[in-house]
Write a structure and sequence with these properties.
By secondary structure, the protein is of the alpha+beta class. The protein folds into two domains: 124 residues, SEA domain (Alpha-Beta Plaits); 216 residues, Thrombin, subunit H (Beta Barrel). The chain has six helices and 16 strands. The strands form three sheets. Strands 5-6-7-10-9-8 form a six-stranded antiparallel beta barrel. The protein is globular, with a radius of gyration of 25 Å. The termini are far apart. The structure holds arginine. The site of arginine has 13 residues, from strand 15.
């Protein structure tokens, strides 16, 4: 009897200690803070409020890098996740940047962590060490509710898979579900037909040739989420706008925009990809990703779960070589894959995104799966509609 009681007590004690250790050391939850920084050396420029203008991208990059460095060199390096410039505004002390900073640590340590983070900011930004300044009055960080922070992050374009993957904290969740949140499936009579990319709450970009058989919006639906069966959301199509110069069974101007009948609410799993400026140039050999539910070989079945493949940009000159596509590649197309073959998009991927990560892990749509000879064949890489070439066309149709 005594033995039984002792064993039970020891067991209970062990469970309590185990739980305590878990909560103290391993319960890593995300904590979000808002902070404002002044940049006295700079004047406000309306370009800073245009989300993807060169000026705002460059400045955001500079600020995020500075904040990264400060925390990565600090005692909080293991807990710092990232900084995200939300917006800019003019003040009488110069330009002000509003930044969302994310940390991961056990909830039991909220007070100490915040105190340490405040001190780190104070130490690094009070003096003339940095171009960023912070008000001398503590505290600098204002706690933010998870829902509010997520709302801000999810309404920004291009947040997707972390690339290259970084192992930060044990227990950090994998991105798999939310890796390519702009990817949609364009379906005719309920079955997957093409891919498409979400660029606002109600507009998608896709390929014109997806509509070669039917342009009637009533026959089309769009699904979101990484699986075709049991998707996260479905929407009806309100209208389809095909490029005026597109001619069926030709490859030029293979672009269309699709408007949903009702907007989609943004979440971690469903939100937009960024559209690059018309001036963005992507250099050959850049690593890019293409995603879709297309077949893994010619005439193969469509998978249920979204797949991704990494390919490389190939210059139009090389792609137009006699052994490759011998002159069929025009300036509105961009070539990606490998001359050695193997990795490529395939049937069913059409209309889907070719994306590149720029500015510390923000994904930009640079291509739309368009055509190719076979799939993954030697000297026959994939051809994509060059999004920068049609940037103004997209703007003229969608105002995005
Ligand atoms: N045209 C095909 C489709 O309708 C996609 C072609 C992409 N082919 C390639 N080899 N990259 O789905």
């Amino acid at each position: 009897m005594v033995g039984l009681i002792v064993t039970a007590l020891v067991l209970v004690l062990a469970i309590i200690i185990g739980l305590l250790i878990y909560f103290l050391a391993y319960d890593q939850s995300s904590h979000y803070y808002q902070a404002s920084f002044q940049i006295p050396s700079m004047e406000y420029d309306p370009e800073f409020s245009v989300e993807h203008s060169k000026a705002s991208r460059d400045l955001k990059e500079k600020i995020n890098t500075e904040i990264d460095q400060v925390f990565q060199r600090s005692i909080l390096s293991q807990h710092y996740i990232k900084s995200h410039v939300v917006n800019f505004r003019p003040t009488n002390r110069g330009l002000e940047a509003n930044v969302l900073i994310t940390f991961q640590f056990p909830s039991t340590r909220v007070d100490t962590m915040k105190w340490q983070a405040d001190n780190i900011l104070h130490e690094n930004f009070k003096s003339s060490k940095s171009f960023l300044k912070i008000d001398i009055s503590l505290p600098h960080l204002r706690e933010m509710h998870e829902a509010q922070a997520k709302h801000i992050l999810n309404s920004c374009c291009g947040l997707g898979m972390e690339y290259p993957p970084v192992e930060r904290i044990a227990g950090g969740k994998t991105a798999a579900q939310a890796a390519w949140p702009w990817q949609a499936s364009l379906q005719m009579d309920g079955s997957h037909w093409c891919g498409a990319s979400l660029i606002s709450q109600d507009w998608l970009v896709t390929a014109a040739h997806c509509f070669d058989n039917s342009k009637n919006p009533k026959l089309w639906t769009v699904s979101f989420g990484a699986t075709l069966r049991s998707p996260l959301m479905r929407r009806k199509v309100d209208s389809i706008i095909i490029h005026e110069n597109y001619a069926a069974h030709k490859h030029d101007d293979d672009i269309a925009v699709v408007r949903l009948s009702t907007p989609v609410p943004f979440s971690e799993e469903v939100h937009t990809v960024c559209l690059p400026d018309a001036t963005l140039e992507v250099s050959p050999k850049s690593k890019v990703f293409v995603t879709g539910w297309g077949a893994s070989k010619v005439n193969g079945p469509f998978p249920n779960t979204l797949r991704q493949v990494q390919v490389e940009i190939i210059s139009n000159d090389i792609c137009n070589h006699v052994n490759v596509y011998g002159g069929a590649v025009s300036s509105g197309m961009i070539c990606a894959g490998f001359l050695t073959g193997k990795h490529d998009a395939c049937e069913g991927d059409s209309g889907g995104p070719l994306v590149i990560t720029l500015d510390r892990n923000i994904w930009y749509l640079i291509g739309i799966v368009s055509w190719g000879i076979g799939c993954g064949k030697e000297n026959k890489p994939g051809l994509y509609t060059r999004v920068t070439h049609y940037r103004d066309w997209i703007k003229s149709k969608t105002n995005i």
